[in-house]
Amino acid sequence: MKKVHLIGICGTAMAALASMLQDTGWAVSGSDAAAYPPMSELLRARGIKVQNGYAAARIGADLDLVVVGNVAARSNVEAVRAAELSLECRSLPETLWEEFLKVKASRLVVAGTHGKTTTAAMLAWGLRSCGARPSFMIGGELLNFSANYHLDSGGGFVLEGDEYNSSYFDRHAKFHHYRPTQLIVTGIEMDHVDLFSGIDEIVAEFRRLIKKMPENGLLVAAADCAVLRQILTEAPGRVLTYGWAETADYRLIDYSPEEVGGRFTVRTPAGKNWQLRVNAVGRHNAENALATAVMLESLGFQETEINHGLGTFKGVKRRQEIIGRAGETLYVSDFAHHPTAVRRTLKALKEHFAGYYLLAVFEPRTATSRRNLFQKELAGAFTAADEVLLAPVHGAAKLNPAERLDTESLALAIGRHNQCPARAYKEIDGIYAALKERAGRKELVVLMSTGAFGGLYSRLLQPGPEPDSG
């Protein structure tokens, strides 16, 4: 039995990879700075021991492979020890290619600044619902499946493709290792400011990805993204566009929110009106669903099959997920952190839950949102909110004050821009107290964070049934 050790094993993708390697006969061990759920629970259930902290002694000469997550620095003691022993070290995406992807005839990758996880989840479920047997690995908790990965006998593998670097020794964007035969790109915007100095560097990564696609491949691309449209001609194979733009091959022409999800109409290249519905809230999810539908249709599936898959899609945890209630107060968890994602998420919720007072609670936590790159853009991202509470910048002490997001100024700008109350808090305890005091009112409280929000969820929320929408 071959032995593998994963450094940074509790990441969503790393835990999935560990499980996949175990499923295919590897003896798996792993370590992380701290074991944290939900992935630590998944690993524990599979009997994979997670060792807290890093120690050189864990890396033995008997290891056949060490997978180094991109959370590990060059100075990581386990990575250093692996190099001293001349062990084979790979990044996560390189391991995926070598162990799982290169034998697949079809590699369906979803990339783009926004909507990757949801669209990839829709595609995996759509293929399964249509009778295919895809494998998949996606960076979120998928409500249609028992895990965020699955290995199956079909010739296709669905992946969420990230433009972030693979590891400290593998500076290529992750998605280059996946070598897509079919690719969805949901749009390109500035992000990952800890890695990219400007939008041109990000575009260069996507250009390289698109240019390396096979001639018999398919690119499904967002027509509403001007930056993306400029590089579509470089695709060597077929290109289909989707979205609201008049030039889109598959053009969205209307959208109607429903009690659960929404219904929308699409004008196809043949001039036919295609009626679709998706069990996910918002016009942006109509776009994600349309990208999925275009890909499924291109693979030969019929409208009725595609509609069934989209209509039975349950979503992804922490993507507009109703997680609890207190009286008439509904609590929603969402991952939005980029101004575009914040704006679109709040607009969708305001439209769907029209009878509710919308209270947005935002924690700047990612490398991008913690910085002042989008200080002005964030002020306009909360337009749909009736009130905004801002948490302190996560890990603020580690940032240069000159580049750190100024939440006090942001609150003032939101108030001026939206003509609504906005307040910046110095401690999450203050937000907790404010939310507890007003619990029970007819409010939609949207908790926007990419992390644990300082324990706010566990302290505040009680699970409850999903309500009727407004």
Features:
470 residues, alpha/beta, Rossmann fold, UDP-N-acetylmuramoyl-L-alanine:D-glutamate ligase, 3 domains, six-stranded mixed sheet, 14 helices, 23 strands, globular, disordered C terminus
Structure description:
- By secondary structure, the chain is of the alpha/beta class.
- It folds into three domains: 3-90, Rossmann fold, CATH 3.40.50; 95-311, UDP-N-acetylmuramoyl-L-alanine:D-glutamate ligase, CATH 3.40.1190.10; 321-460, Mur ligase, C-terminal domain (Protein-Tyrosine Phosphatase, Chain A, Alpha-Beta Complex).
- The chain is built from 14 helices and 23 strands.
- The strands form four sheets. It has a ten-stranded mixed β-sheet, with helices on both faces. A six-stranded mixed β-sheet has the order 18-19-23-20-21-22, with helices on one face. A five-stranded parallel β-sheet has the order 3-2-1-4-5, with helices on both faces.
- The termini are far apart.
